[in-house]
């Protein structure tokens, strides 16, 4: 029931979320900054962030794959990469409390964007929608996203719909210059009748929503 329209190719994105032991967060980030080039040598990293608000001691990273065979080949190569296994993975695993991964596709009306400049913050918004997939709620969800874009206060980076993981989940990534810039824009949007009307239509299909403010790590292509 959850499978719906997506980009007209086999490209997908693996979203990995790790909970880090609170006392080990600084150590984990330092290891990522020092050794993560060993991982990105094997496949394309879209972004790597640490949570600042809405969650703590959490990192999120997104990987792009051409297809599932591509991912299988990359995972096989990583398992045989002694530098990656010895310098990063083995020392990092004891620092991690929990790992979760999802496979998601960009929705067909969205291309993966980039921020207009470096130095901003990212808002990761997760919508848990009612069962039925985009055939049920896709158009009103798109209208709500476009209403926020049209206010001009924020920059859309991407909209992802899950294929593996918790189904009927949509992840939306926004970019803002700063947390204060985001707060001011949200205030303006809440007073915009166009946004209010579009959101009112879409929330009929909404089960829950979670927002996390993310800071890009040094290795992140999206900064």
UniProtKB/TrEMBL annotation:
It holds the Pfam family NIPSNAP. GO terms for cellular component: mitochondrion. Gene3D superfamilies: 3.30.70.100. Residues 13-111, 122-221 form the NIPSNAP domain. GO terms for biological process: mitophagy. It comes from the Eukaryota. SUPFAM superfamilies: Dimeric alpha+beta barrel. Belongs to the NipSnap family. This is NPS3A protein. It comes from Fregetta grallaria. The gene is Nipsnap3a.
